[in-house]
Specification:
Elements: H1 12-26, E1 31-36, H2 43-56, E2 60-65, H3 76-82, H4 95-110, E3 115-120, H5 127-137, E4 145-151, H6 165-171, E5 175-179, H7 185-193, H8 202-216, H9 220-233, H10 245-253, H11 260-270, H12 276-283, H13 287-300, E6 303-304, E7 307-308, H14 311-319, H15 323-339, H16 344-351, H17 364-379, H18 383-396, H19 400-417, H20 426-434, H21 444-452, H22 456-468, H23 472-485, H24 495-507, H25 515-525, H26 531-540, H27 551-567, H28 571-584, H29 595-607, H30 611-618, H31 631-645, H32 649-666, H33 677-686, H34 701-711, H35 716-723, H36 727-741, H37 746-753
Parallel strand pairs: 1-4, 1-5, 2-3, 3-4
Antiparallel strand pairs: 6-7
Helix pairs in contact: 4-5, 7-8, 9-10, 10-14, 11-14, 12-13, 12-15, 15-16, 16-17, 17-18, 18-19, 19-20, 20-21, 21-22, 21-25, 22-23, 23-25, 24-25, 25-27, 26-27, 27-28, 27-29, 28-29, 29-30, 29-31, 31-32, 32-33, 32-34, 34-36, 34-37, 35-36
């Protein structure tokens, strides 16, 4: 036996009522029935199922579907009904003649067999066909004719203003009212258990029924759509159903052109700001007109307490909203909510969707509202909406200096959720910094972004501009941060800079510390003899109300914890923290800081004996600029230790001596955390039975610096620029390097010192 359509779950009582009416019709007691219900409750399925059953029992079934597009077509529905009757040539042109002709034709048909006249969406019947149906309803008492209609309980307006048969039929003494409602939880459970609903066992269907009922309000069409999406996505363990394409299509299919569609659109646009009064004002109609439409949406199962039952339904309505209409509604919402004194973030959510040229959403006040909303969103730990508000503010701001500050804030907000997204702003930020469009207190964030993404030279030029503009104290603090992250020969080192930054990361202070400070925190934690104390703080710190907790900050904290754990020899804990850090941000989002979680992960993998994982980690491309930061020393040391453990002592010596030369060039004394000498001695012992010489020991300090940069893939001109010498000098040093090490090319040099880092 084929399963019944899903819309007929728990519709046995309604079918029995129609069967009883058909039985009376067979006896010559004609009558009418009107099936009413909100969209998606199964009206069409019920009358079609009954029509098929009646036809199999020998009745003549005439079916028509009314449509809003054909309401102005005279006798359109009547023509559909009679088009299958043999010899029918079309309805009479005169209304009175048409009424009698339709009646006479149907009475004639009923002499041989009962006749079922079924009209779907009857509220959209054209005026003349509606008169025919009402005329027929009053004259079928002695005929074997059953009139069956299906429509919405909410009266649709007719173009000509005349009444359609829904209300008239309901009041007619011969009409049987059959009202369909949405399903209760028991019926939803039966649906989920049925083969066409989900084929779940009884216990699972009963367990999932509340969530499916909550998502759909018991609307059969929506339930069917969720079941279709479930087949698409596969069975899920979650108790909540997954709404996909089928569900969205079903939602829009439940919206009619009788006003419910416009009401649903207004509700979707307003979101949490929706009230009966605001919806009515946004649509420009009286509240009395909106109430029944919201009731209809609630009866359909889309609304609960005046709100969409789930965001998927709201999203479906917004997706099918034409762009121009969407902008118009959001613009109207801006005006209404401002007049009611709504908060900045509520107004800003609508501003971002409006046309900036719309007078209702234009003016200097918009930039202030958007900036204020962004600040609130960022403080609440929601960087994505904050970035959206700032992007809209930046696009509306006419002043170059204010635009620069807004762009800096936008980039900083984007960094909080996806640092890779900031790259597209860096060139403009550099231009604005060098044009002195930032105040001293506002330059920290854009400077930090330049440093994070490997543009220290651009940051240096910006610092020069800032210092020349008279911001000496601010410039000095920012320069100290930059020099701590990107150390150079003879530059003073201030560990307090890193400690302050570490404290800012641990305490999650707001406003956010500069990105460079966050990087410095990682670097400092890798060197400090107070690592144990900071590691405990990182492990125990939990988000507190009002603190900023974003993906980037969680990643930075996890990376710092990984560095500390790796330095303390806690390899399992370090591996877990490093995996968490690298999982929160993609490699390209880490910028030059990528060396820190990578180095911690490599150390952990080496300590755990997982050489395959370590090798896979080392295949991750790292930016060239990373080798100008302290992260380079950590990365080279970790790679050297791995190569030593993997039985590659010569390659390990190259990494360890490169680490040595970096530290020496920066004037940094190697501490316990960056002890290259112990593994270097082990590598020398492991090579050639303990006789492997230190190849870098044959070179002068200047030659070692040139050799390391050349092995990293730098061109002669790039090396000359980096070391403040001429290209000719670089060439001379390389010639001596090749001769002393008995090499012939940069490829040989890279093989000795380690792979060339990816650009």
């Amino acid at each position: 036996m084929m399963p019944r359509p899903l819309e007929l779950v728990r519709r046995d009582g309604e079918l029995a009522m129609l069967r009883g009416l058909l039985a009376a019709t067979r006896r010559g007691e004609g009558g009418a029935a009107l099936v009413t219900g909100s969209p998606g409750t199964g009206k069409t399925a019920l009358i079609r199922a009954f029509g098929d059953e009646a036809a199999r029992a020998g009745a003549v079934v005439l079916h028509a579907s009314a449509s809003p597009a054909e309401q102005g077509l005279p006798l359109g529905v009547a023509g559909q009904l009679l088009s299958a009757v043999p010899g029918f040539t079309g309805p009479e042109p005169e209304p009175a003649d048409a009424l009698r002709a339709v009646r006479d034709l149907l009475v004639g048909l009923s002499a041989a067999a009962p006749v079922v006249v079924a009209v779907d969406d009857i509220e959209y019947t054209d005026e003349l066909s509606a008169r025919c149906l009402l005329y027929l309803c009053g004259r079928i008492g002695a005929a074997r004719i059953m009139l069956l209609g299906a429509g919405s309980p909410y009266q649709a307006p007719h173009p000509a203003g005349s009444a359609l048969p829904v209300a008239e039929l309901v009041r007619h003494p011969r009409c049987l009212a059959v009202a369909l409602t949405t399903l209760d939880e028991d019926a939803v459970a039966a649906f989920l258990h049925a083969p066409y609903g989900g084929a779940m066992d009884c216990a699972e269907a009963r367990r999932l029924a509340p969530a499916w009922h909550e998502a759909t309000g018991g609307n059969p069409r929506l339930l069917h759509a969720l079941a279709e999406d479930r087949l698409q996505f596969g069975p899920l363990r979650s108790a909540r159903p997954v709404a996909g394409t089928a569900f969205k299509r079903a939602v829009t299919g439940c919206l009619r052109a009788d006003g419910t569609r416009d009401t649903a659109r207004a509700l979707a646009v307003l979101g949490r700001s929706a009230t009966l009064t605001v919806v009515a004002r946004l649509l420009g109609v009286h509240e009395r007109a909106v109430g029944p439409l919201m009731d209809s949406l609630a009866d359909t199962g889309l609304l609960a307490s005046g709100r969409f039952r789930n965001e998927a339904a709201r999203a479906a309505v917004l997706e099918e909203l034409p762009p121009g209409e969407c902008a118009r509604l959001h613009g109207g919402a801006v005006a209404l909510l401002r007049a009611e004194g709504a908060d900045a973030e509520t107004v800003a959510r609508h501003l971002v969707a409006t046309d900036p040229a719309d007078p209702a959403s234009a003016g200097p006040w918009t930039v202030d509202v958007l900036a204020e909303a962004a600040e609130h969103a960022l403080r609440a730990g929601r960087p994505k909406p904050a970035a959206a508000f700032l992007a809209a503010a930046h696009g509306r701001c006419p002043d170059p200096a204010d635009r620069a500050v807004l762009l800096g804030s936008l980039a900083a907000a984007e960094w909080e959720s996806d640092p890779a997204a900031v790259v597209r702003h860096l060139s403009v930020l550099e231009q604005d910094l060098c044009a002195d469009r930032f105040g001293p207190a506002q330059a920290g964030a854009p400077l930090g972004l330049l440093l994070w993404h490997g543009r220290p030279d651009a940051a240096s030029r910006a610092l020069q501009t800032l210092g020349a503009a008279g911001a000496g104290e601010h410039a000095a603090r920012l320069r100290a941060r930059a020099q701590y992250a990107y150390p150079g020969p003879g530059l003073p080192q201030d560990p307090a800079v890193g400690e302050r930054a570490a404290r800012a990361v641990v305490s999650r202070q707001h406003p956010a510390p500069g990105v460079a400070a966050a990087l410095c925190a990682l670097l400092y934690l890798g060197e400090s003899d107070r690592a144990e104390q900071w590691q405990a703080l990182l492990r125990e710190t939990q988000p507190v109300p009002g603190a900023l907790d974003t993906p980037a900050r969680r990643a930075v904290t996890a990376a710092a914890s990984a560095v500390v754990q790796a330095r303390l020899g806690r390899h399992a804990e370090a591996a877990q923290a490093a995996e968490r850090a690298l999982g929160l941000l993609a490699p390209e989002a880490w910028g030059v800081a990528l060396g820190m979680p990578l180095s911690a992960a490599v150390l952990a993998a080496t300590g755990l004996g997982d050489h395959e994982w370590a090798a896979r980690l080392l295949r991750t491309p790292v930016p060239e600029a990373m080798f100008r930061t302290r992260a380079a020393a950590h990365y080279l040391l970790a790679r050297g230790r791995f190569r030593l453990a993997a039985g590659q002592p010569v390659a390990a010596l190259g990494d360890l001596h490169a680490c040595r030369d970096l530290l020496a060039g920066w004037g940094i004394a190697p501490g316990t955390a960056l002890d290259w000498s112990t593994p270097a001695a082990q590598a020398r012992e492991a090579g050639a039975g303990g006789a492997a010489p230190d190849p870098m020991g044959l070179l002068s300090r200047a030659e070692r610096r040139v050799a390391v940069l050349a092995a990293q893939g730098c061109t002669n001109q790039a090396i000359a620029t980096r070391l403040f010498v001429t290209a000719s000098t670089v060439e001379q040093h390389l010639t001596k390097v090749y001769r002393k090490l008995r090499l012939t090319s940069r490829t040989d040099l890279a093989a000795l010192l380690g792979p060339v880092p990816s650009r």
